[in-house]
């Protein structure tokens, strides 16, 4: 009653001993099965006049077969003296007021659910009495388009007259022209169903009158009026209906192993996690993380010590939250099989009785996403970016003498060669993920792909059902070969020639990690710069040997490039120089601006994104937009200092160049806009004589152990620059690595279903006790057909010598 923190029964004594707090409010909800026939078909009766506790009600239990009774009482330690509430006579007025305030307070986690797609829908008031016109309208199985325009997406079927009309327009340029809403205003017909979402389990229904998504308990009847049989309908991953797709072709079906009877798994290590609303990316990553012994030992093995030494507010302590989550997944307390008597009862009654299994990681998600513009939202996210975000937090919150993230860390040797002088430069950087490109040109079924594409276009033109999907088959060895091949270095400045030249870069492993994480780079940008995913099948091996990618360092006969920075040319008139520099700094790449604007972002925001990322391209600017789109001045015009201000400050800066190499403020601002701290930006520019490109390389290869991480390290800017942006704690002896042989065995993979990282669903497969197990949020089952060829992130562990 002093800190307003909640504790389970097994931890309350620890908190009392640690803090001396002796007064606690005990809250409990009793779920009681009603006597058959007691409700008479009415809503469940409640023994109290109201449910005064704002506790989450299981959707499985929220039916006519159960009723609830809430109980609250004060418990005074150490004697465990209990006082039932309400009790105005025995308690001081201040205590009574505090208890009433707590009991009537809304749960902060329920507040977070307001934006969640899992929010429970209510039945529409129009569903039971909906009038449907007998106008002979029949909806074809495909080839739909808006009856008032030519749009073929985001289409809604009005359930009164059978009109097919487009939905509203969205800020990202998708959606429609709002003809469905206009039709409602003209006719008053209230309900519409979204075409492409109709499945045997239901459909997406919207009530124009109630202005919200609703349930239609009579949806099957209403659809049958227009000739639609729900039992024959399927939903495809792009939202377009196609009931001619053959079984187990859809990515969603294959990855989730639909159509196969899967055996549920129970016990330690087989605990599911509730989806909190597009949080499947978090669930999949954490299941993989806590299957690794080093993380199990660090957090679950040290749980008593972590809990004993946690701060007074454990909700804001990373190690406490990690230990709590790990214990929930590994203890087996939340993954218990049903009793044999319960199974027999279910069979006799021909009903399904819900099992209270799985954990809800609300507190963990709230903490780990705090301050992050993307992970704190209810939008879908990239599992790879979350993995790096998690490793960043593990690095900054050490537990014990060993850091469990050391098992992922390795060194990359980058060899850069000047094509003209043939001289080389070797550098090293820290990395955590091996990113493999998808070698589309090496597909082994090119003829089938070409034929499929032709058939698909013909089907779309003729409004016929699409042909059976053909997925590109890419050999893994081709992806590995593409990883090892040299890549061109743009704007390479050769210190041997003292001029710009052609350069190539090759990456090799300076060390091999204990656990190798391999990401297949499936996500890319289309010609319209809309993020998309390459739907490919790659024959990922169970056993992987990358020993041939071991770095060899400077070889005999190779000559190193001189360690000389590009010369700084200072003109006679500093003002003229800064005037030219100012004009150049405002030279915004208009082609990149237009590419971003075509995606639906405000024009001024696009200009700022391209300006603050130094004209490095639309992809980098897109990352800037995603990280800054929630700022209040996001769409405000770009504001730069006046020319006189720039000239004077520039002259001062130039005067400082000869003294202490103080970098120009414009370059510092560009680096800061990418998520780095100001002093790190200045240090990098000083070390590279104010060369922006080399300064970024310097930051990636020279992590600063004395620099305290700030909130900027948690932002999207930092992590969109992929692995190299995680600053490892190097110490005086260099990065902590666990080098060894480059031979590995696959033990897990995370798969993504959907067309981009901004949508879809994640599932995790792990190999445990000699068999594969699928973790699909709360559902944990023995896998029968693990889709190893469709994974996105793969986890390998080193094979001992």
Automatic annotation (TrEMBL):
It catalyses: Thiol-dependent hydrolysis of ester, thioester, amide, peptide and isopeptide bonds formed by the C-terminal Gly of ubiquitin (a 76-residue protein attached to proteins as an intracellular targeting signal). Interacts with UFD1. Interacts (via UBA domains) with SIAH2 (when ubiquitinated). Interacts with BAG6; the interaction is direct and may mediate UBL4A deubiquitination. Interacts (via UBA 2 domain) with AMFR; the interaction is direct. Interacts with UBL4A; may be indirect via BAG6. Interacts with NEDD4. One of its GO terms (biological process) is regulation of autophagy. One of its GO terms (molecular function) is K48-linked deubiquitinase activity. Belongs to the peptidase C19 family. One of its GO terms (cellular component) is cytoplasm. The active site is at residues 280, 761. Its EC number is 3.4.19.12. Residues 587-628, 662-702 form the UBA domain. Residues 122-230 form the UBP-type domain. Its main location: cytoplasm. InterPro entries: Papain-like_cys_pep_sf, Peptidase_C19_UCH, Ub_carboxyl-term_hydrolase, UBA, UBA-like_sf, Ubiquitinyl_hydrolase, UBP13_Znf-UBP_var, USP. CDD domains: Peptidase_C19B (cd02658), UBA1_UBP13 (cd14384), UBA2_UBP5 (cd14386). It comes from the Eukaryota. It is found in: Cytoplasm. This is Ubiquitin carboxyl-terminal hydrolase. It holds the Pfam family UBA. Keywords: Autophagy, Cytoplasm, Hydrolase, Isopeptide bond, Metal-binding, Phosphoprotein, Protease, Repeat, Thiol protease, Ubl conjugation, Ubl conjugation pathway, Zinc, Zinc-finger.
């Amino acid at each position: 009653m002093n800190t307003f923190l909640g504790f389970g029964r097994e931890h309350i004594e620890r908190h009392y001993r640690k803090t001396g707090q002796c007064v606690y409010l005990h809250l409990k909800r009793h779920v009681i099965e009603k006597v058959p026939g007691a409700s008479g078909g009415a809503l469940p009766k409640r023994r109290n006049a109201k449910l005064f506790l704002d506790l989450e009600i299981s959707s499985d239990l929220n039916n006519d077969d159960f009723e609830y009774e809430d109980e609250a009482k004060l418990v005074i330690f150490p004697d465990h003296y209990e006082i039932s509430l309400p009790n105005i006579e025995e308690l001081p007025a201040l205590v009574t007021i505090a208890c009433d305030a707590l009991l009537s307070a809304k749960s902060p986690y329920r507040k977070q659910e307001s934006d969640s797609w899992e929010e429970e829908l209510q039945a529409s008031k129009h569903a039971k009495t909906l009038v449907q016109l007998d106008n002979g309208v029949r909806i074809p199985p495909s080839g739909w388009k808006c009856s008032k325009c030519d749009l073929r997406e985001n289409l809604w079927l009005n359930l009164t007259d059978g009109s097919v009309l487009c939905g509203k327009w969205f800020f990202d340029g998708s959606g429609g022209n709002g003809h469905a809403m206009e039709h409602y205003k003209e006719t008053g017909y209230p309900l519409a169903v979204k075409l492409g979402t109709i499945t045997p389990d239901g459909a997406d229904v919207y009530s124009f009158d109630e202005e919200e998504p609703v349930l239609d308990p009579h949806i099957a009847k209403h659809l049958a009026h227009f000739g639609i049989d729900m039992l024959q309908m399927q939903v495809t991953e792009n939202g377009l209906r196609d009931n001619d797709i053959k079984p187990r072709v859809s990515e969603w079906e294959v990855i989730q192993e639909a159509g196969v009877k899967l055996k549920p798994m129970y016990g330690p290590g087989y605990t599911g996690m509730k989806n909190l609303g597009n949080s499947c990316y978090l669930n999949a990553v954490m299941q993989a993380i806590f299957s690794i012994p080093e993380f199990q030992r660090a957090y679950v093995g040290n749980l008593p010590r972590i809990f004993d030494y946690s701060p007074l507010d454990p909700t804001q302590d990373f190690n406490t939250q990690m230990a709590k989550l790990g214990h929930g997944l590994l203890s087996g307390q939340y993954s218990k099989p049903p009793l044999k008597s319960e199974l027999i009862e279910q069979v006799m009654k021909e009903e399904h009785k819900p099992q209270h299994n799985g954990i809800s990681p609300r507190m963990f998600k709230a903490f780990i996403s705090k301050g992050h513009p993307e992970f704190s939202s209810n939008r879908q996210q990239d599992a790879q970016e979350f993995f790096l975000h998690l490793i960043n937090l593990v690095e900054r919150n050490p537990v014990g003498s060993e850091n469990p993230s050391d098992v992922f860390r390795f060194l990359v040797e980058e060899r850069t060669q000047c094509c003209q002088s043939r001289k080389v430069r070797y550098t090293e950087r820290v990395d955590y993920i091996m990113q493999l490109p998808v070698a589309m040109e090496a597909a082994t079924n090119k003829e089938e792909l070409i034929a499929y594409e032709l058939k698909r276009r013909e089907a779309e033109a003729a409004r016929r059902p699409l042909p059976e999907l053909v997925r590109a088959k890419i050999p893994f060895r081709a992806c590995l070969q593409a990883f090892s091949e040299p890549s061109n270095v743009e704007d390479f400045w050769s210190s041997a020639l003292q001029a710009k030249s052609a350069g190539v870069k090759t990456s090799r492993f300076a060390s091999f990690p204990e656990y190798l994480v391999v990401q297949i780079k499936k996500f890319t940008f289309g010609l319209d710069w809309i993020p998309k995913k390459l739907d490919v099948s790659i024959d990922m091996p169970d056993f992987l040997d990358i020993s041939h990618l071991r770095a060899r360092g400077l070889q005999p006969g190779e000559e190193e490039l001189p360690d000389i920075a590009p010369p700084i040319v200072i003109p006679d008139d500093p003002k003229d120089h800064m005037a030219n520099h100012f004009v150049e700094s405002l030279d915004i790449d208009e082609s990149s601006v237009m590419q971003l604007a075509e995606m639906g972002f405000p024009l001024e925001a696009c200009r700022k994104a391209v300006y603050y990322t130094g004209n490095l391209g639309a992809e980098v600017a897109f990352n800037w937009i995603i990280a800054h789109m929630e700022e209040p001045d996001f769409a405000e015009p770009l504001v730069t200092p006046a020319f006189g201000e720039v000239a004077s400050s520039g002259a001062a800066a130039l005067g400082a160049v000869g003294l202490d190499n103080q970098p120009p403020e414009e370059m510092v601002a560009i680096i800061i806009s990418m998520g780095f701290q100001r002093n790190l930006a200045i240090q990098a520019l000083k070390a590279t004589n104010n060369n922006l490109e080399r300064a970024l390389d310097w930051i990636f290869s020279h992590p600063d152990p004395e620099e305290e991480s700030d909130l900027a390290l948690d932002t999207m800017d930092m992590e969109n620059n992929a692995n190299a942006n995680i600053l490892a704690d190097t110490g005086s002896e260099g990065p902590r690595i666990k080098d060894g042989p480059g031979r590995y065995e696959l033990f897990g993979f995370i798969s993504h279903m959907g067309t981009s990282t901004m949508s879809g669903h994640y599932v995790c497969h792990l190999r445990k006790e000699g068999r594969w197990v699928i973790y699909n949020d709360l559902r944990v089952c023995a896998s029968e057909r693990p889709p190893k060829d469709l994974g996105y992130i793969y986890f390998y562990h080193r094979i001992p010598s």
